[in-house]
Each structure stands twice: as structure tokens, then as C-alpha cells.
Amino acid sequence: MKQSILTLALLLGGAALAQTAPTTPVPATPTPATPAPAPAAADAQTVVAQVGSEKFTLADYDRAFRIAVARVLNSQGVPYTPEMLAEFAEARPDYLTQFARDRAVYQLARRNTQVTPAQIDAQVAAARKGFASDAEFAEALQGTGFANEAELRADLERQAVVQAYLDSIKARLTFGDAVVNSFYNLNRASFNRPAQACVKHILVKSQAEGQAVLQAVKGGADFAQLAREKSQDPGSAAQGGDLGCISPGDTVDAFDRAAFSGPVNQPQLVQTEYGWHVLDVTKRTPAGLAPLAEVAPLIREQLARDAAQKYLDTQIARLNIQTNKAAVTLPAAK
């Protein structure tokens, strides 16, 4: 549901490894050598990137690109479908840089970090909970860009390994009150925040379905459970319908008006081009300067993330990263 102007920025901003991205843009990782251009019709086994001694094929890249596109769409409240890939075709060459960087971080992370199959089993079981059948779960997986459970497991394993690695780096980085206060005073403009609305929703296809869900919620039904069972938005359904906090203009007009002008903690029914939303605004925050006490934890996190990013950049620079953008560039439509 976020407007389409944001989609490329979200995709190229590191959707596949969002937890490593600092608030300010990260320069693209240098690629000291580039393989020869691929033939016009590259096949799935064409090597498109090499990180150290590890090679990645077009099939590997296409899988990652599909999942990254699905995450962007899901963050906007839109389920992924294969035909939507065409809308992101121009981002494919630049996303290859992000793909190679993510694989470099994963390569560094797994040298000293491992997760057990039991940990991944638990995450899959949590994702599987709430679906009545394997067929429903498989459909939900496809709506989030995963072709099957094996792809989900591989993605969860990579994320867990990388997150544990990043946490271990950040745990060694601490910043005292004086540093935090100085950062706040030097960057006060950065803490002038827009108004925000924290929202959750259940997306259904028809007005009749929306009215039925709205009445159920007003009657005391559990919103999160209904979202998991009925919402057509795979990006938020698994989170009980929670979309987090949005700012004015982040969403399409009808949703935006309801989020910022409608009642708080009173579910309402809203129609957009995506369907009918049972929308509940749980909190609104006015625009203005955020107080230091509120943002100090975020500042410490930002400082630690930036320092960790610099450390990662140093480590990645030691790897020989090669990319072949020609192999991932699709022919221009005639």
C-alpha cells in the first residue's frame, strides 16, 4: 500500500538485509574486477557474482530478487504475484550489488556463527501456525515470494546467522551519555518527526466480508487471530495485521485519511484499490521534536550500527567481489 514511488528505493536500500543498513545510504561495495559480459540469453547456471571463492548463478540471483521484491510489496500490504516482477526489472542490475554484499556478509558471518536445525524448525512452526492446511500455508508462502518451504528455511537460516553475527559485533560497541547527548544536540533536526499513526488491518476482498470482520472485531473477537485467518495481506497477516507506525503520505489516500483522521482504538472499514480494510488505529503521535529520553536508545543503536557497518565494510573490502550485471539485465521491452 505504500505508494509506488518508494518501491525502488526500498528494494535497492537493502531489503534482503535490512538489519545491516544504516539510516544514511551505504556506498556500493567496490567491484575490483568484472567478468566478461554474458551472452544475450543467459541461462540459469550463468555465474552472475563471485564472493571470494564462492560463485552464485543467475538462478541464485533470481530467487533472491523474487523474495526481495515480495518483501517490498508485502511492506505495502500487497501480496506478491509473479507478474509483478516486471515492474522492478530496471532495478535488477543495481540489486546485484546488494545481492553480492549480502552474500559477503553471510560468508563472513557463518565462519564463527551457526544455527541449529531445531532453531529453524521453531521459526517455521511459528510461521505455519494459524494455517488450517499445507495448501493454505503453501499459498501464503507464494504470496511472500517463497516458492516452497525449503526456500523459506534457507532464508531464515541466513537471516539468523547474519543477525547473530551483527549482534556479536554491536555487543562490543558501547556509547556513554556524553556521546549520546552530543549526537542528539548536533542532529536535532533529524529528530523532528512527522505525525505518525500506528495501525493494524485486515484486508479482505469484498465489502460484505469487511462488514462481517468488522462486526466480529467489535463483538470482541481477537483481531490478531482474525488477521492470521482472513487477511489477504501476507506481509502483515502473520503479524496479526500489524503494519507498525506510518507517516502521512506513506499509504494510499483513503487509507491515509482513515489512519490520520479517523477514531483511535475504534475499528473502521475502509475501501482502497487493494480491497476492503478493517483498520484499527492503536496510537497517534503528533509532529515535533522527539525528547532525548525517548530517542536515546535509538541513538545508541544507530551509533552501534554505524560502527558495525564500518567494520563490515572493512571486512568486505578484503573479499574479492565480482559481479556480472549484463547477465541479470533483461532485454528492453519492444
TrEMBL record:
Keyword Iron-sulfur annotated: no
GO molecular function: peptidyl-prolyl cis-trans isomerase activity
Keywords assigned by UniProt, alphabetized: Isomerase, Rotamase, Signal
Compositional bias annotation for Pro residues: 24-38
Entry annotated with the keyword Signal: yes
Classification via Pfam families: Rotamase_3, SurA_N_3
InterPro entries according to UniProt: PPIase_dom_sf (IPR046357), PPIase_PpiC (IPR000297), PPIase_PpiC_CS (IPR023058), PrsA_foldase (IPR050245), Trigger_fact/SurA_dom_sf (IPR027304)
Annotated signal sequence range: 1-18
Domain PpiC: from-to ranges: 194-283
PANTHER family registered for this protein in UniProt: PEPTIDYL-PROLYL CIS-TRANS ISOMERASE HP_0175-RELATED, PEPTIDYLPROLYL ISOMERASE
Name under which the protein is recorded: PpiC-type peptidyl-prolyl cis-trans isomerase
Organism of provenance: Deinococcus phoenicis
